[in-house]
Amino acid sequence: MRSPHIAYVCADRGIPIIGTKGGSTHIREMVNALSARGAELRVLAARPTDGASRNALRADLLDVGSDRFGRALRTHIRRIAPGAPGEVIASETLALLGNQDVYQRLQRLHARWHLDAIYERYSLWGHAALRFAREHGIPFLLEVNAPLRVEQARYRALHNAVLAEALEAHLFQLADRVLVPSSALREYVIARGARPGRVRTVCNAADPDRFRSAPRPTWNGGPRTPFVIGFVGSLKPWHGIQDLLRAFVRLRRRSSAYRLLIVGDGPLRPAIEQICRRERLTDAIRLTGDVDYARVPALMAEMDVALAPYPRMTTFYFSPLKVYEYMAAGVPIVASAIGQVTEILTHRRTALLHPAGSVRKIVEHIEELRARPRLAARLARAARHLAVKKYTWDRNAARVLAMIATLQRQIRAGRYAPAEEPAL
Predict the structure, then answer these.
(1) 5-205+393-412 CATH fold
(2) Do the Cβ atoms of 3 and 181 come closer than 8 Å?
(3) Is the dihedral of CA 235, 239, 242, 248 positive or negative?
(4) What are the tens digits of pLDDT across the range 83-131?
(5) Cβ(215)–Cβ(242) below 8 Å
(6) How far does Cα 340 stand from its chain's mean position?
(7) φ, ψ of residue 225 in degrees (nearest 5)
(8) What is the pLDDT of residue 415?
(9) 5-205+393-412 matches 227-390 in fold
(10) I need a labelling partner for 42 at 20 to 30 A (CA). Which of 64, 182, 253, 364 fits?
(11) Reduced to 3 states, what is the DSSP secondary structure of residue 306?
């Protein structure tokens, strides 16, 4: 029996497959894990690369974002309606027109390389993959990593909100399987039309071989000096970088031994640099900016403690990639007790957890880990053991391939019953 042929579709122009974003990492790690398990993949991407990264992908990468007509139309829209409103309309129009390119690529691919399944990362305006799958009787799996429509309206701008809501419901209702990384997103997709029996929770993960636990030298004296506090992720408000900085300023006032290593980039970088200058911490805080994923394990190995300091939020739907990587790397973790973090980590067994937004507790926990290296080592070992056992990309890939195999058996037995289009 031949290996399954899978088309992985990402029509989101905000996620370069070969890039440094968390979404980029998620796609590459899942594709590479599926490939390592014997599947053959073709990745259809609206944005294949960010032009700088050199991360490896074990699959052919097909560009479906270079439609000249759509780009020309976007330019005309910008001329007719200059400014922010016109930019939003132009962006949405380009994304909608991109469905034609996705459909045609799938058509050509299927003709010469019979597809067994289509796996799509949910994007705000994508519908071609679902349409193609339904017309050709191919299983369609939809991965939903965020409530994109809600995020777009809240944090950016959404012109055609009605169409976005309709497309969202259509995709959720008709997908053979809807994969979500957290229980909060499971509730979201079900509330918007997904059938509960077709929804699967597949948490984020890490590769324990890539993030091998670095042997840390034993420390028999007093608190370790210097002591490196680490953070990996985009510098955005909902990642809690502001609370981390407040905590670090307090820690430095107590001891000059503390250092802060921030791996990532984002809109809050100017604010961080301003705090560095104001508090005279330029020599104590290191910002790497965006780095290729291959460099992240070595940077984590420099950390004595790793932070996931999420602030208070009414809805926390994240499956924090950084937390799984911290676990796999064997770095002691200090994290907010919020959302999925409390589902995977246990206070004083695999991490030190604090109430979201509590700068005082962040400071206390970091000081405790510095003063008690045996506790830090025990927490790190337990967290890595848990990551190796339950949260790996290989395990996720095995689950996805099992879903596809089940749907293929149903097709062969004549029992495959895709959800039908809503009656008009």
Answers:
(1) Rossmann fold (3.40.50)
(2) no
(3) negative
(4) 888 898 989 899 999 999 999 999 999 999 999 999 999 999 999 999 9
(5) no
(6) 14
(7) -135, 130
(8) 87
(9) yes
(10) 182
(11) strand
Was domain 227-390 assigned CATH 3.40.50.2000? yes
Q: What are phi and psi of 240, to 5 degrees?
A: 75, 20
What is the predicted pLDDT for the residue at 424?
35
Which segments of the chain have a pLDDT < 50?
Answer: 423-424
Q: Which among 60, 395, 335, 382 has a CA at the least distance from the CA of 207?
A: 395
Contacts of 266 (CB under 8 A, 6+ apart): 234, 235, 236
3-class DSSP assignment, residue 388: helix
Q: Identify the bridge partners of residue 120 per DSSP, sorted by sequence position.
A: 9, 142
CB 252 within 8 A of CB 278: no
**What pLDDT is attached to residue 420?**
64
Separation of first and last alpha carbons in the chain: 41
Residue with tokens 């799996």: 141
Q: If you average pLDDT over every residue of the chain, what do you get?
A: 93
The pLDDT value recorded for residue 184 is: 95
| 3-class DSSP state of 220 | coil
Cβ within 8 Å of residue 106, ≥6 positions away:
7, 9, 44, 115, 118, 128, 129, 132
In sequence order, the 6+-apart residues with CB closer than 8 A to the CB of 214 are 301, 329, 330
C-alpha to C-alpha distance for 347 and 148, rounded to whole angstroms: 31
- C-beta of residue 300 within 8 angstroms of C-beta of residue 325: yes
The residue type at 260: L
Q: Give the closest residue to 225 by CA, choosing from 198, 250, 193, 258.
A: 258
Amino acid identity, residue 41?
L
Q: Tokens representing 291?
A: 């780095």
For residues 394 and 406, give the distance between their C-alpha atoms in angstroms, rounded to a whole number.
18
Q: Sketch the domain layout of the chain as residue ranges.
A: 5-205+393-412, 227-390
